[in-house]
Amino acid sequence: MEGTCRYCGRHVENGWRTLSYWNQVESLCHLECKQQGEREEALECQTIDSDCNDCGYYKRGVLAPKIVSNTKTTSGKWVQVVFQPNEIVNGWCLRFDKPTNAYPHSFRGKECFVHRRSP
């Protein structure tokens, strides 16, 4: 695989696969750029999202419970369908001392947001 590194912009021969933070779009990168590039992109995207999930004031709760249902296929067989919501429930905002939920990889634009990895 040959192309341009997603993180440094230089030419890549025999590159490594990396996925974008939001849409999981596949790109190439150098092995030495991969870990740092993915971390920086995640930090930038999480700051744009400004959701409680990545806020320094958020005390995490638990992942929302799975939703299990049964349905019939077109052939008449019963199958179980399991859906895992992308939501953390029963969390707590330490800044405002109140319960709150978080929605990973979702934009909320909270003005009170402070990234948990901020200095």
Q: What fraction of the residues are assigned to beta strands by DSSP?
A: 25-35%
What portion of residues is helical?
10-25%
Structural class label: alpha+beta
* Rg, alpha carbons: 19 Å
Summarize the structure.
The protein has about 120 residues and is α+β, with helices and mostly antiparallel strands. It contains one helix and ten strands, in the order E-E-E-E-H-E-E-E-E-E-E.
Q: Could you walk me through the main structural features you see in this protein, from its secondary elements to its overall organization?
A:
The protein is of the alpha+beta class and 119 residues long. The protein has 2 domains: 1-49, no CATH class; 50-119, no CATH class. Helices cover 16% and strands 34% of the residues. It has one helix at 31-49; strands at 2-4, 11-13, 16-19, 26-29, 58-59, 62-63, 67-72, 78-83, 88-93, 98-102. The strands form 4 sheets. Strands 5, 6, 9 and 10 form a 4-stranded antiparallel β-sheet that branches. Strands 1-2 form a two-stranded antiparallel ribbon. Strand 1 and strand 2 (11-13) form a beta hairpin. The longest helix has 19 residues, at 31-49.
SSE topology:
Blueprint: E1 2-4, E2 11-13, E3 16-19, E4 26-29, H1 31-49, E5 58-59, E6 62-63, E7 67-72, E8 78-83, E9 88-93, E10 98-102
Antiparallel strand pairs: 1-2, 3-4, 5-9, 6-9, 7-8, 9-10
